[in-house]
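Researcher: Re-running this chain for the archive, since the previous output was lost when a drive failed. Same request as before.
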Amino acid sequence: MKQAFVFVGGDVCPERITERPEEGAITVAADVGWRNAQRLGITPRILVGDFDSLGEPDVGEETEVFQVPAEKNETDTQLAVDLAISRGAEQITIIGGLDGRLDHTLSNLAILEDLDRRGIHAVITDGRNRVRFLRNNSTLIPRSGFRYLALIAADETVKGVSIEGVKYPLKRARLHRAHQYAVSNEIEKNCALIEVRKGGVWILESAEASLAEPPKKK
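Model: Regenerated structure tokens:
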């Protein structure tokens, strides 16, 4: 499965990001996401955006640069994701984009839903949180450094929701968008098995607040 990494803006905690591109992976930076890639020691092969945040890009010849107008319909993240798909990406990891402006954060969560609809496996993480989208399907979430697990309903009613291997299991439950209660769960086994029979949910993993903060400089 062709892998792509898309680096976007927002604060990240590099010490807690375990995802790294393998050899041959597509690497794309969306505007100021270039700096987040650099913080992780990665030089993306593609840079796209209007550069209103990054400024005039200073990159090497090995990086393709696509500058777009500031007045456009798509966000820089959407453009970067679509560019990765056009290069053959079947699995996308988005780094960043979960803090700062709420409109961008919600837009990025919607991108996960759209990618699921398009048959693209996707996850977004900033090191403090990691999010996936699941509709009418099942998945395994391995136990990791993220303490909390939550399901957030994307539809008015999500039916047949089951969670195994967790502190608070569910069995064919119903989740409602207007009354979110499947939060602050914890994985107790090696992994959690999540099944959704009808509807869509965002699956969120979150770190303990004290662990989510990057180490202070001495």
